[in-house]
Amino acid sequence: MALTEQTLQDKIEIVGEYKHVQVRTARVIYDNDVEISRSYSRHVVAPDADITVEAPEVQAICTAVHTGELKAAYASHLEAQNTP
């Protein structure tokens, strides 16, 4: 019985007005190269997030969609949310 594990980001989506990037990560367990288990986790990357901790593919997508103009609009949105 040779168990192996693979972790991969199998779905990356751009959603919403401020183009949040949703990343789904799959954890796949194999027994002798036959998949026996798969589980998922998700996280969201906002326009103001530190993307240096993300995978290169996610960084490239964030760089493309999180423009300076979008980041400024998102910052204004957040500021308006925190103003009483």
Structure report:
With 84 residues, the chain is α+β, with helices and mostly antiparallel strands. It has helices at 56-65, 68-82; strands at residues 3-15, 20-31, 34-45. The protein is elongated, with a radius of gyration of 17 Å. The N and C termini lie far apart (61 Å).
Question: Structural class, from secondary structure content?
Answer: alpha+beta
Strand content: 35-45%
Radius of gyration: 17 Å
| Spatial gap, N to C terminus | 61 Å
Helix content: 25-40%
Q: What summary fits the major beta sheet?
A: 3 strands, antiparallel
Chain-averaged pLDDT = 96
Which descriptors would you attach to this protein?
84 residues, three-stranded antiparallel β-sheet, alpha+beta
Tell me the layout of helices and strands.
Elements lengths: L2 E13 L4 E12 L2 E12 L10 H10 L2 H15 L2
Antiparallel strand pairs: 1-2, 2-3
Question: What is the gist of this entry?
Answer:
The chain has 84 residues and is an alpha+beta fold. The chain has helices at 56-65, 68-82; strands at 3-15, 20-31, 34-45. It is built from two helices and three strands, in the order βββαα.
